[in-house]
Design a protein that fits this description.
Helices cover about 45% and strands about 15% of the residues. The chain contains four helices and five strands, in the order E-E-E-E-E-H-H-H-H.
Length: about 130
C-alpha cells in the first residue's frame, strides 16, 4: 500500500499528530510549503487534493509557474571510483553514462526504460 497521496503529479505525506490527535501532511518534493490536515484519512486526502488544486489555481491567477516535483534531472555524487566503473560499463555496452544511469535507476525501481532511453540519446558521456 502506498503511504503517500497522489494528485495532479504531486505527492503528499500522511503524518499523525499525536498531541492533537489529528493527521497532518505536506506536499512533497516542492520548494513551496504546502500543508494540510484532517481528522480522518479521507479528510486528509480531501484536504491534500484541495491544497494542490488551490496552489495551482493561485499560481495561474498570479501568472507564475507552479513548482514541479520532478524535472527529470538529478545531480548525483557517487565518488570517483564508482563514476569510473559506471562510465566504463556504459562504454562497454555502447551507452552514454546518462542512458546507463537511467537504466540502473529504472531497474532498481522496477520501472521500464523503453522510450525514455531514446530521449536521452547523445547526452553526457561522463
Amino acid at each position: 500500500m502506498d503511504k503517500v497521496f497522489r494528485h495532479r503529479g504531486y505527492s503528499g505525506s500522511v503524518e499523525p499528530d499525536l498531541d492533537s490527535g489529528t493527521l497532518r501532511g505536506e506536499v512533497l518534493f516542492v520548494t513551496d510549503t504546502l500543508l494540510y490536515e484532517g481528522k480522518t484519512i479521507g479528510e486528509l486526502e480531501k484536504a491534500f487534493r484541495a491544497t494542490v488544486d488551490h496552489y495551482l489555481t493561485l499560481c495561474r491567477e498570479r501568472g507564475i509557474e507552479p513548482k514541479k516535483p520532478f524535472k527529470g534531472s538529478v545531480t548525483v555524487r557517487i565518488g570517483e571510483k564508482l563514476h569510473e566503473k559506471a562510465a566504463l560499463d556504459a562504454a562497454r555496452r555502447g551507452q552514454t553514462l546518462n542512458q546507463w544511469m537511467t537504466e540502473a535507476v529504472a531497474l532498481r525501481t522496477k520501472d521500464t526504460v523503453e522510450s525514455k532511453m531514446k530521449t536521452h540519446q547523445g547526452t553526457d558521456r561522463g
